[in-house]
Design brief:
Length: about 250
C-alpha cells in the first residue's frame, strides 16, 4: 500500500518539470545509499548490532531530511540536467554549469531514497550494514546501467523479489445488482480498507451506480490544464488522507 502511494508520488514528480534530468535514478540511488552508510557510521559509532527500530529510525531520517539543496545541486549541460552532490558520480566530468537549489529535486530525491530502501528491503539493508557491505556503487549497479531518470518500467519487473508484505487487495467489484444493504463477510472485511475505485474505462454497458464517476470522467477533456492540475492535487490529497495507518502516514 505505502509503496503504491510512493510510486504514485514519484510518478507525479517525474512527470513534472524535471523530465530533462539524465541519470537521476542512478544518482538518487547512489546518493541514498552513500548518505545512509555515512550517517549510520556517524550515529552508531562502530556499533554494528543495533535494534531494528533504531536502525530504521536513522534510515528514515536520512531519506526525509538529508537531501537538502545545500548539499545537492543541478548541473546543466546542453539542455540536460545532472544531479551533483555527495556520493553522486559525475557523468559529465569537467562540463556543465552547476547550481544549487533550482526545482524540487530535493523532494524527488527523498521519495527515491524511500523507494530504494523499500525495494532493497530494510532487513537486507541492516544485514549489509552489519557485514560492512553497504556499498552504494554495488547496490546501484543495475540502476546505473541506464541514464533513465523516471520511475518507469525499466527493468523493474522481476528484478528483485517483492517484499513479503501483504499486497493491498484489489478494489471490490462495483455493486451491480446486489441490494445495497446486503454484505458478504468478504465485503465487511474489505470495507475497513477503503480503496478508491478504479476509474472504469468507458464501456458500452453503463452501470447506473457509476453514473456520477462517468460524468466526472466525461468532463475531463473539457477542463483547462490548470483545472486538471487542481483536480489531480485534490485526488492525491484525498488519497493521502485515506492512507490511515500511522506507518503509511509516516512514509508519506
Ligand atoms: C561506508 O561507511 C564506512 C564508515 O564510514 C566507510 O569506511 C566506507 O568506505 C563506506 N562505504 C562506501 C562504499 O562509501
Ligand atoms: C564498492 O564497490 C565498488 C564496485 O564494486 C568497488 O570498486 C569499491 O572498491 C567498493 N568500495 C568499498 C569501500 O568497498
Amino acid at each position: 500500500m505505502a509503496r503504491a502511494w510512493l510510486l504514485l508520488l514519484c510518478a507525479c514528480h517525474a512527470q513534472g518539470q524535471d523530465d530533462d534530468f539524465e541519470w537521476f535514478r542512478c544518482d538518487a540511488c547512489s546518493a541514498s545509499f552513500f548518505k545512509i552508510n555515512k550517517t549510520l557510521a556517524q550515529r552508531l559509532l562502530g556499533r554494528t548490532s543495533v535494534p531494528a527500530y533504531e536502525f530504521l529510525e536513522i534510515v528514515d531520517d536520512v531519506c526525509e531530511t538529508m537531501f537538502t539543496k545545500n548539499e545537492f545541486g543541478v548541473k546543466q549541460h546542453e539542455g540536460k540536467k545532472y544531479l551533483f552532490g555527495p556520493g553522486v558520480t559525475d557523468h559529465i566530468p569537467g562540463q556543465g554549469f552547476g547550481q544549487m537549489g533550482m526545482g524540487d529535486y530535493d523532494k524527488r530525491l527523498a521519495s527515491y531514497c524511500k523507494m530504494f530502501v523499500e525495494e532493497l528491503g530494510e532487513e537486507k539493508l541492516q544485514r549489509l550494514w552489519a557485514d560492512q557491505q553497504l556499498n552504494h556503487s554495488q547496490l546501484c549497479v543495475e540502476e546505473c546501467l541506464s541514464s533513465a531518470s523516471g520511475t518507469g518500467a525499466q527493468s523493474r519487473a522481476g528484478r528483485k523479489p517483492p517484499r513479503p508484505k501483504p499486497k493491498p487487495s484489489p478494489p471490490p467489484p462495483p455493486p451491480k445488482t446486489r441490494p445495497p444493504k446486503e454484505k458478504t463477510p468478504k465485503d465487511s472485511a474489505e470495507s475497513s480498507t477503503k480503496t478508491a475505485p478504479k476509474p472504469s474505462k468507458p464501456s458500452g454497458t453503463p452501470d447506473p451506480k457509476s453514473g456520477e464517476l462517468d460524468k466526472v470522467l466525461s468532463l475531463l477533456p473539457r477542463l483547462k490544464a490548470s483545472e486538471l492540475q487542481r483536480l489531480g492535487s485534490a485526488v492525491i490529497e484525498e488519497l493521502t488522507s485515506r492512507a490511515s495507518s500511522p506507518r503509511e502516514r509516516s512514509e508519506l
